[in-house]
Amino acid sequence: MKNYLTILVDTTDEVTTITLNRPERLNAWTHEMSMELQDAIHACNENPHVGAMVFTGAGRGFCSGADIRDNFKARLDGKRQTGGGDWIELVRSSKPMIAAVNGACVGVGATMILPMDVIIASTEAKFGMLFVKMGVTPELASSHFLVQRVGFGAANEMCLTGRLYSGEEAFAKRLADRVVQPDELLPTARALAMEIAANPSRQLRWVKQLLTENGSETDINKVHEREGKVLAQAYQSDEHHEAVAAFLEKRQPVFKR
């Protein structure tokens, strides 16, 4: 992995931990951070030794939203940088991703993790959809993913009030999938990532593809059709053959990356 200016990247035991690293600004999002995150994710997807990714923040915050100077002020001054890929497409097509939210997680800090596979919150985390308080509106398809995660009423309340929610409140609203004590956050996230990474990589991404395409699909025939096409691929895969052989031989399967 290359050296980055706004993130840290560490790979251990098939799990890559990507840490947002602007602690003096509570890891406020910048264009440079976005480009570095995308580059690191692409590198993980191409690395056969990486099975899953964990995202967290350095210091007291996870991500305090868009950097006012780098993002909003620059946009108003006509200096806003553009570019980069489709974040939603990247997240949903990548290897499994777990967000380990250690502190403030607001604005784009929250919306960037909504399409990730699992969100684990520290009891010290603070979640907020603060867009209305900045005179703007939600982005990164968060008006879709937030409703999927918390439901219509709770999504309305969160977005229309711009209120902050604790890690426990986020878990109660199903915004976070788990809530743990601060010292348990990264060990819990890494343990889950290692459990996931033990499964065959192609099948993990096929599962993500199906959940993405079918999660909001109202045509059950299309759901069935998509599943059938992917399952046909899976039946022909080396990983399936190895899993069947391992079961019959009463041993653990060995999946090649």
**What is the number of E strands?**
10
Largest β sheet strand count, sense and barrel closure: 6 strands, mixed
User: What distance separates the N and C termini?
Assistant: 18 Å
> What structural class is derived from the secondary structure elements?
alpha/beta
Helix content: 40-55%
| Oligomeric status | single chain
What is the approximate shape?
Answer: globular
The percent range for strand residues is 15-25%
Low-confidence stretches: none
Count of helices? 11
Characterize the structure shown.
This protein is of the alpha/beta class. The radius of gyration is 19 Å and the shape is globular. 38% of the residues are buried. The mean pLDDT is 94. The strands form 2 sheets. A 6-stranded mixed sheet has the order 1-2-3-5-7-10, with helices on both faces. The chain contains 11 helices and 10 strands. Strand 1 and strand 2 form a beta hairpin.
List keywords for this structure.
about 260 residues; alpha/beta; 6-stranded mixed sheet; about 45% helix; globular
